[in-house]
Each structure stands twice: as structure tokens, then as C-alpha cells.
Amino acid sequence: VQIQGSLFIASLLLSKTKKMAEEKSSIAVQFLSVSDSYSPSKSLSVGFKCPSGMSVSTSDWIGIFKVGWVSTRDYYTFEWVNWSSPVEEDDQKVGSVTFAGRRIPPSDGNMYQFCYVGRDYSMRGCSRPFMISSGADDISFIDSEFVEITSDDIDQLRSMVVINTVGTDKKGGVPAILLELKETVQRLGDEKGEIIKELAASKEKASMLDEELVEKQKAFDYIQQNSEEIVKEAEQKQAMLDDMAVKLVEAEQLLASLEAKVSQFGEENSGLKLEVGKLLADVESIREELQVCQTEKAGLVASKLTLEKEIKVYNFER
After folding, report:
1. Are 52 and 185 in contact (CB under 8 A)?
2. Which of 39, 77, 125, 236 is surrounded by the fewest CB atoms within 10 Å?
3. Maximum C-alpha span of the chain
4. What pTM was estimated for this model as a whole?
5. CA 211 – CA 216 distance, rounded (Å)
6. What CA–CA distances, in Å, run from 229 to 221, 235, 243, 286?
7. Rounded to 5 degrees, what are φ and ψ at 131?
8. In the chain, which ranges are continuous DSSP H helix?
9. How far, CA to CA in Å, does 26 sit from each of 23, 29, 157?
10. Which 3 state secondary structure label does DSSP give 75?
């Protein structure tokens, strides 16, 4: 009876939440054929339909959240959405995921719901609540669906909990679920305060990062200016290298020309050496002939002297 009363109150709150989010429902993911309860010992499958024009990604996922969640970090478990080969019905993408084994929450009397989370961690849609129970067939409640929930919706839930707490019949354990919901709303308020503090700290950190970014921008501008000067100097060095390369080519051509002349001079020098050798041989031959002529001259001179002496003797005798 207590569970039936808890689910009845919850269904009323969820119905009001649905009315407040009618405008959002047209862009929210719809979950199909969500059961009132599931067995912890069986696989849990759920289908869903994305609105026309909604951008999907293989990084999207379906999570099982305990009712009363605050952010997408409060999931119990999740499964990735397989959009590798999507099925479309009336321009709407249709898919399904299956949870099994330890990915199914325990039978602890809590209410859970499926939520579609985008790759940017935005809540794109939530199912109606369900329970994990071994006696799943004995539990039922009013059919309703969740859509995207904002901080304004949480404030509306808080006001509804206060209104429903006053004058409630204490039979059937109804105040217990209201107390639990009130505590949940209080916890949400506390966590909201923590989030506001974190946001303030994030803003302060963002300001510091902006200042750091300005300093880094100045350093970057300085480096960029120096890099431009370095590039200009490098271009000048490159021009000098190009000029030296041209001069090197000219020097190599001149060296090749000199080597050719040296080779030609060597050949001519070899010819000259042969001619000089011949001349030396001719000189030696002339020297030998000269020696012979000198010897003959000496003999002729001696003969001349002998004749002169004989002539003188002959004339003296006459």
C-alpha cells in the first residue's frame, strides 16, 4: 500500500511536470513502451524515438537515473547509442538499448527512469519512472513521461511538494513519500547552492585565465615580431648563399678550364722534351765532330810547321 501511495503521489507530480514542459516535449526524445517495473534478473530493453531534425551522434548515451537526479553525472549506469545504421520512421530516428547483468539497478524500492544524454552532456529527454522489483507484475501507476527538466522545473516541484504536504491523509504511508520528496528537494537546493559556488569559483578562474591569456598574447606578439626579424635575416642569408652558389659555379668552371690548359701544356711539354733530347743528341754529335776537326786541325798545323821547316832548309841549302 505504501508503494502504491508513493507511486500515486509521484505520478501526480510527474503529470504536472509534463504539463509545464509541453512546449519542450516536441523537441525531447520519447521513450517507447516503458514498463511499470522490471525484474533484476532479466535483460532490460527500451526503445526511443528522436524528434525530426535532431542532431545525433555515436557519443550519445542512454542512462538509468534514480528519480531526483540533479545532473547528468548522477547516472546509475549507461549504454552507448548505436547510430551506425539508424532506422527512421516519419523522419524520426528510432533506436533501442539493452541493459543486462550488473548494469541493472538492484531491487531497492527506488524509482528510476531512462534519460537520453547528448554528446555535449545535455539532457535530451527522460522516460516515465519505473521500479526494479522481483514482483514487477503487481506494481502499476499512472502513465506519464518525463521530458527535459530545468532549474525552473525543480523550483516548481519544490512548491508542489510544500502544497501537497499540508492536510495530507496520514494513512497508507503517504506522508513518508512526501517527506522523502521534500528531503530530495532540500538536497537539490543544497546541491544547487554548491553549484552556484562552483560557478562563482569557475568565473574567478575564468578571469584569471583571461589575464593569463592576455599575458600569453603579449608574449606571442613579441615572439611573432622577433620571428619576422629572424625571417628577414634568414632571407638575407639565403640571398647571400644564392650569390655564393653562383660564384662557386663560376669558380668550378674556371678551374675546369685551367685543368684543361694544364693538361694541354703537359702534352706540349712532353713534345718539347723530345725536341730538347734530339737537340742534345745533335749537340753531342757536333761536339764529337768538333773534336775530330780539332784533332785534324792540330795534325794539319803540325804538318804545316814541318813543311815550313823543310822549306826553310831547302832555301838555305840553295
Report:
1. no
2. 236
3. 205
4. 0.40
5. 9
6. 13, 10, 21, 83
7. -125, 155
8. 2-20, 22-25, 151-165, 174-317
9. 6, 8, 21
10. strand
